[in-house]
Structures are given as structure tokens and as C-alpha cells.
Amino acid sequence: MGNLTSIVSYPERGAGGNNKYRGNCSPQVIKDLITHFGITEICDYMCGSNTTKDAADALGIKSHTYDLHSGFDLINHDIQERPGYIFWHPPYHDIIKYSGNMYCPDNVKSKHGYDPTVSDLSHIAEWSDFVKSMNYCMMKQYSSLQKGGRMAVLVGDIKKKGKLYSMLFELVKPGTLENVVIKTQHNCSSGSTRYSGNFIPIVHEYLLLLKKDDALIIPVLITQQRNADIRDIDCSTWRNVVSAVMESFPDTSCLENIYSKIDGHKKCSNNKHWKEKVRQTLQIYPEFVSTDKGKWQLLKVA
Predict the structure, then answer these.
(1) Range of the domain at 183
(2) What is the pLDDT of residues 154-180, one digit of tens each?
(3) For the domain that residue 275 is a member of, what is the CATH number?
(4) Is this model's pTM higher than 0.85 or not?
(5) Do strands 220-221 and 204-211 pair parallel, antiparallel, or not at all (unpaired)?
(6) What is d(CA 231, CA 272) in angstroms, rounded to the nearest whole number?
(7) Element (H, E) at 285
(8) CB count, 10 Å around CB of 292?
(9) What string of DSSP letters covers 214-283?
(10) Which of 45, 106, 232, 252 has its CA 20 to 30 A from that of 52?
(11) How many domains does the chain have?
(12) Residues 210 and 251 in one domain
């Protein structure tokens, strides 16, 4: 058995793959997976600079590795193997565009007969579209696994213009999630750059380890974003609701405007005396202050 723990760090990249092929991972990650799980054959359907093959060769096991640049389109081509183990390191959205930078699309067209940019996940502009394609690829690979097979998926978080985009949370997770390993990153640009404001540099990735325990039935964990109205949430107190309503006004507000913002919502649907409750809330909490004009103002308090 290997020495994998819930946190791994590889300050020295090690031999394997091409360290000039941007975004590829340390071959030691794959070697540790092979050793830990006793893998005798491994597949990689987005192999990049073929780090997986080099790691497998170094440990004397068989590998099947493919990529858009070498004639395999994971979105449109069928997986030929019935894998027992898959390693997958997808592009981190469009942070690094692969076709056109790491390899020439025209060479792929002339040799393999298709335009790689069409199926290149790193060329998808919208995050939501990227997530759909990423999850399609995830499910396609998982479905190809033999019963008892495993997938190791290396993903990261992305920050653009102050907004966080998390592959970890939006990646569909089929089967049994056995472990999430935190992999520290070394020699990344965010570590040597000074940032202003509240920006926190990202210096880690996630290695998800999933197992296919059933041949037919697949438990699937999916993250869905929905908007919840605080006026309709069971656990919201009257203080929460009235404060939120007051925050929606630019300055002060009269009672009728406050009522109108709450009327018809779940918080008052089962309480025929809800207007009295609003007035009571305004009177007993220190953040609500009545002005000379008969209006109410919300103060910021700790």
C-alpha cells in the first residue's frame, strides 16, 4: 500500500510528462495512486503531455492514454476500454487554452480529421456551459468503468474578477465518494503575486476518489443553485425578515411599505396577526429606530 493521506504535497515535480505543458500535474500524484490502490492498468482520456503513461511506465504497469491532440475526442468518441481505473485531470475552465497554445489545431485537423477547438473544454467561454460539458465527460467516463472500478479526478477552484468558481462543488459526483484529498500547489503564479483587497490566493487542488460499487444503479451527487427568499424560509425569525426588508429600502420606510414587502409570503401566511408582529419587532430591537416623520430606519449594530 502507498502513503496517501488526506493532504499531499509534492514540492519537486519529478520526472514524467512535459513540465512545459502548462497545467499538468506531478507524476508523483499518479504514482502514489497506482501504489496505494495496487493498480495494474490505468486509463486517461485527457492525458495532456502523457504524464499518466510516464508514471505507469515507471512502475511497470499498462496504460491507455488519449487526448484531443492525438485523435481522441472524449465528448464525441466512444471509450473502447472497460476500465478498472481512470485518472482524469480536466482543464480548469479557460485559464489555460490548450488547442492553439499547447498544440496546433491545424495539425490535428490534417492528421485526425476534426477541429479540436470544438470539443476543447478550455475553449468554452461561459462557466455554466463549461460545467455541463465537464459533467458530461465525468458521467461518460464513470459509466465506462467496470463494477468495482475507480476514478481519481483532480480539480481546482478558479477566481476571476473577484468571483470564485469551484469545480469541486459543481462537478457531478457519481458512485461512492471514498475520499477527497487536498493537494498543495507549488510554483504557481498566485504564490508570487501581491494582491490588493481581500483576495486569497488559491494554492491547492482537490483529488476526488470515487468507486463504482453497482453495475446498474449510480448514486449521483449534484449541486444545484437555487434562490431562497428569506421571507419564505422556515428558520427565519421576524427580526431576520424585518431587517432584510429594511435593508431593501435605500433609507427609511413607512409601515405600509414594510407590510407590502412581507404580505403574501410564507412568514405571514399562517399568522393572522402578522402586522402586529412586525410592529412589535420594530419596537423591541435596537437596530430599528423610529424617525420624526413616522418612518423606520435600520441602524447597523454589531
Answers:
(1) 7-221
(2) 999 999 888 999 999 999 999 999 999
(3) 1.10.10.10
(4) yes
(5) unpaired
(6) 16
(7) none
(8) 5
(9) -SS---EE--------GGG-TT--HHHHHHHHHHTSSSEE-HHHHHHHHTTSHHHHT-TTHHHHHHHHHH
(10) 106
(11) 2
(12) no
